[in-house]
Design brief:
156 residues, alpha+beta, 6-stranded antiparallel beta sheet, 5 helices, 33% helix, 6 strands
Length: 156
């Protein structure tokens, strides 16, 4: 009897959509050597910061990746705008003593021509500031440190 109940519960979970979603951008890089993620906020108003360390990802790997683009000089100011907004939310997390702020160690000075990034603006790219920054995901890969930095913001 217990086995039947377990099977029914499992079937209900699968049918209800309760599963761990995957991230196709992260999956495209393979398994990281180390990973960490910090979150501040709740439900639909939250901010995430993640770091993923890899070994031996080359420029050629990223050039062939369907998601990533090489950082050009003109991309720096675009990314700095998103980071400035993101850091405002990190400051809010700091005011609440959230661990995301304690672990946030990225800076706009780290943006480098020749690194790689992927920006998902969730359809807000045609909006004026501040609406431009309402929801986005940035994946920034530093070739020198073999680190992928992940920035998610979904706050208004």
């Amino acid at each position: 009897m217990k086995r039947k109940i377990g099977i029914v519960v499992l079937a209900l979970l699968l049918l209800s959509g309760c599963y761990m979603p995957t991230d196709p951008v992260l999956d495209s890089l393979g398994e990281p050597q180390e990973s960490a993620m910090w979150t501040w906020g709740e439900f639909q108003d939250f901010t995430d910061y993640g770091k993923y360390r890899y070994l031996d990802i080359t420029q050629e790997d990223l050039e062939q990746n369907a998601y990533f683009s090489e950082v050009k000089e003109e991309d720096i100011s675009l990314l700095q705008g998103y980071l400035a907004n993101f850091e405002g939310w990190v400051a809010n997390a700091a005011e609440e003593g959230n661990e995301l702020a304690e672990h946030y160690d990225f800076s706009g000075d780290m943006l480098t021509v020749g690194d790689y990034f992927y920006l998902d603006d969730h359809g807000y790219s045609d909006q004026p500031e501040p609406f431009l920054y309402v929801a986005h995901d940035i994946y920034y890969f530093s070739l020198d440190t073999q680190t992928l930095y992940y920035f998610h913001n979904n706050n208004s």
